[in-house]
Design goal:
Blueprint lengths: L21 H75 L4 H9 L18
């Protein structure tokens, strides 16, 4: 009874050798890679958008110049029309102004007013 008993310690668990799988090593590098991919995508999208904008501008420049030429033509036409309209309006005011009616009648028909007398200048007869 008093004999030594073999110690019955629980067997120690086998030591785990910590191995890092390659997938985990790649995952550690991926945050930097994700930032690089994101920056590359943003840069490429911006380059594409810039190219599209520049091509649109180059197509619009000839249209703008032709529209400028048309605008100048229209402004010249408006100017000449407004000058013509002003002449016609002045002519209309002259003939339909009641204060100038007597003067217009005299100019058009060679008539004179009631209080006026016609004076006829004659060359003196030389004898």
């Amino acid at each position: 009874m008093h004999a030594l008993k073999p110690s019955s310690l629980p067997p120690s668990p086998p030591k785990r050798v910590r191995t890092v799988p390659r997938a985990k090593a790649k995952q550690r590098q991926r945050p930097h890679r994700a930032v690089i991919v994101e920056a590359t995508v943003r840069l490429s999208v911006n380059v594409i958008l810039s190219t599209v904008a520049l091509s649109a501008l180059t197509q619009l420049l000839p249209y703008r110049s032709s529209q400028g030429a048309k605008l100048q033509e229209l402004q010249a036409a408006v100017k000449s029309t407004s000058e013509r309209e002003q002449r016609v309006q002045d002519h209309f005011k002259q003939y339909f102004d009641p204060y100038q009616a007597d003067a217009n009648m005299q100019a058009q028909s060679h008539r004179i007013g009631v209080q006026q007398r016609r004076i006829v200048w004659q060359e003196p007869v030389k004898r």
